[in-house]
Amino acid sequence: MPFCQRCGKEVAPDATFCSACGQDLRTPVVRPGSAPLFVRPVIHLGAINASATLGQRLDLKRLSKSFGGAPIVPPNTRVASLTVNAPTLHVRFQNSRLTCLITETGMLWCSGSQTEEQARAALAAVLTQLKNTIRIRGEPTVQIRLSNAAAFFGRGIRIEALPDRVPDSLYVATTVTAGPSGPVPAVQGKYNRGGSLRSIASVADANAATRELNGRMLRIPHIAYWKVSNAVPLATMPRGVDSTGQMLRTGYVVFWMAAGWTQVRETMRVLGATLEREGLFTPLTPLEQIPAGGRDDPRAYDYFAEDPTVWGSQSAAP
Q1: What is the pTM of this model?
Q2: What stretches of the chain show up as alpha helix (H) in DSSP?
Q3: How far apart are CA 212 and CA 193, in angstroms?
Q4: Which regions of 194-261 does DSSP assign to beta strands (E)?
Q5: How confident is the model over 152-180, as pLDDT tens digits?
């Protein structure tokens, strides 16, 4: 079943108007100038993260003293783009955006580096301090990964149709209504689990599906997730609404925790070929229909993907 682009409710395949909000569902006239903006997709690489597994439990209170009284944050706290699920020591580097998280189970996570060399140096500094405080058994297992990569296809993506065509993908539309105790979210969507299509009818359904895909459910109007394979990062496609209330059509995709540029490039190739083959590309939302609030943070819009004033010193990956 298709979905209304305005409210996210399911509608009959032959419906011309949404029964919930009255949205006109007839195919709009394609405007001139709907060709891709770029000759090839544009990619911007995010920060580099370094992690290490010690294979032993740690006394965080003792370690806090050795790191100058670094705070221990409680579970379900958002720190450095991550949500910790257990008590975690939060170590900050002076005069730097670098930060390191240390868990009771012996996991270290250093984030915010712009290069692999910087990430390895930050992790080495923390490990040296740990070795000066406690005995570490064996050699830590170190891994270097990208925090994320932002990609733009220069064409819109029909994310609501992704589960109909692509295994291991999810689409969720979220609406919020006023309740006695405050805002109440309601979700509706589809989940293609290994080729088997399932309906998403509750927040619990959406959370369970995103966990299976190794993602985190975001409460935004429209979002799609795609686990291309177990060997590549999770692709997320968040979308807001345009000035008319319809879903934004953009080619914006975020890849999380890729092993490096080579993996991002290969994932982009597979994703782009699949979208093309399945007919999931569509014209971009016209620039004049992007909400004013969105233009305050233009990094999610293809129109600004090659704008150096938006991305600063971050240039598109080679």
Answers
A1: 0.72
A2: 60-66, 116-133, 162-165, 203-212, 261-277, 292-295, 308-311
A3: 9
A4: 196-200, 222-227, 234-239, 252-256
A5: 999 999 999 999 999 999 999 988 777 78
